């Protein structure tokens, strides 16, 4: 059985589920937004070392011992009961749900794409850049700071320009990558309120999204320079031509090595290609989108992910952990 931690409205989940259905692979949606209102979770530990866990919702009772592979796709916020009204009570209930669910994940014997703890650690942009550099990938000169003087000095030292972006985002706070303009320099003191990522501007407007599935790389060039916004292709993918792309061999090797050191079986990496053709690594998203690339290029990314989940689910023996020897920040 394959578990999918996501929600029914996610198009990527729907697409991979269809591939699993075509292959006759059993799967079950585990929607964390149903916790605790419409999903009942139970775990039992016995003195002889036996552990059991169940997930019960409208689809029935699932013995978590039957789940041999799990896709950590889009976990959703818990939805608490309306009867719990006081803020501190809601905070307590939320914390207890988080501890229960995380405990279930840790105790399951399933193989993960990706393991939640490794996924979280791998999402740290500072850590990504450090490991990418160690693997021989070219990374941009970067300053992450909440010190206005440090930010001002970094911007002044980059005559070709600087872009800035956030560490993370929510649907309410998402911001595109933006160039630092003259008027922005006058507001740079505002970084004292929260750290900001500043990076050298790599000109050219040619981006590459490289999706890695268990060491297999699907790369696509995205011409942001032909869209309405050259600094971030996500703003206007409709008008940014997308075509299959071949990464240089050394860049592909470095990217695969990076995902393994991060403990990722899946990752969506972004590069910016400079005027000289150099591929500059920007970041890797452990749960990044790929359907827009698949639709434009025909690359079988969804099928590759479904096949990976099936291999993990049906292996006679446990598949060797991709994360053996990973780097763990402490």
TrEMBL record:
Ranges for domain ATP-grasp come to 129-310
Keyword terms, alphabetized: ATP-binding, Nucleotide-binding
- Pfam entry (one): RimK
> What biological process terms from GO does the record include?
SOS response
PROSITE patterns in the record: ATP_GRASP (PS50975)
Q: Which SUPFAM superfamilies match?
A: Glutathione synthetase ATP-binding domain-like
Q: Which Gene3D superfamilies match?
A: ATP-grasp fold, B domain
Q: Any idea which GO molecular function terms this record carries?
A: ATP binding; metal ion binding; ribosomal S6-glutamic acid ligase activity
Which InterPro entries does its entry note?
Answer: ATP-grasp, ATP-grasp_RimK-type, MvdD-like_ATPgrasp
Q: Does the keyword Nucleotide-binding apply?
A: yes
Sorted alphabetically, the Gene Ontology cellular component annotations on this record are:
cytoplasm
Q: Which PANTHER family match?
A: BETA-CITRYLGLUTAMATE SYNTHASE B-RELATED (PTHR21621:SF0), RIBOSOMAL PROTEIN S6 MODIFICATION PROTEIN (PTHR21621)
The name this protein goes by in its record: ATP-grasp ribosomal peptide maturase
Q: Which organism is it from?
A: Cellulomonas biazotea
Organism lineage: Bacteria, Bacillati, Actinomycetota, Actinomycetes, Micrococcales
């Amino acid at each position: 059985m394959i578990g999918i931690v996501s929600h029914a409205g996610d198009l990527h989940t729907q697409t991979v589920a269809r591939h699993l259905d075509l292959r006759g692979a059993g799967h079950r949606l585990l929607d964390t937004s149903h916790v605790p209102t419409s999903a009942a979770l139970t775990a039992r530990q016995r003195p002889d070392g036996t552990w059991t866990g169940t997930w019960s919702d409208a689809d029935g009772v699932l013995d978590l011992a039957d789940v041999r592979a799990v896709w950590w796709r889009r976990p959703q916020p818990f939805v608490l009961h309306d009867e719990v009204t006081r803020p501190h009570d809601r905070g307590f209930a939320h914390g207890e749900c988080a501890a229960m669910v995380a405990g279930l994940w840790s105790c399951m014997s399933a193989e993960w794409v990706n393991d939640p703890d490794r996924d979280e650690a791998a999402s740290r942009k500072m850590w990504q850049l450090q490991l990418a550099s160690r693997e021989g990938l070219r990374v941009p000169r970067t300053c992450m700071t909440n010190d206005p003087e440090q930010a001002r000095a970094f911007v002044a030292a980059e005559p070709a320009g600087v872009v800035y972006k956030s560490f993370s985002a929510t649907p309410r706070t998402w911001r595109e990558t933006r160039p630092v303009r003259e008027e922005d320099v006058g507001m740079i003191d505002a970084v004292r309120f929260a750290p900001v990522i500043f990076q050298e501007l790599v000109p050219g407007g040619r981006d590459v999204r490289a999706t890695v599935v268990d060491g297999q790389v699907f790369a696509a060039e995205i011409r942001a320079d032909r869209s309405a916004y050259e600094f971030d292709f996500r703003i206007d993918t409709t008008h940014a031509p997308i075509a299959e792309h071949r990464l240089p061999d050394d860049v592909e090797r470095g990217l695969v090595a990076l995902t393994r050191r991060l403990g990722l079986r899946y990752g969506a990496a972004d590069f910016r290609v400079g005027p000289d053709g150099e591929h500059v690594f920007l970041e890797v998203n452990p749960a990044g989108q790929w359907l827009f690339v698949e639709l434009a290029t025909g690359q079988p990314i969804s099928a590759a992910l479904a096949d990976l989940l099936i291999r993990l689910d049906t292996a006679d023996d446990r598949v060797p952990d991709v994360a053996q020897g990973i780097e763990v920040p402490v």
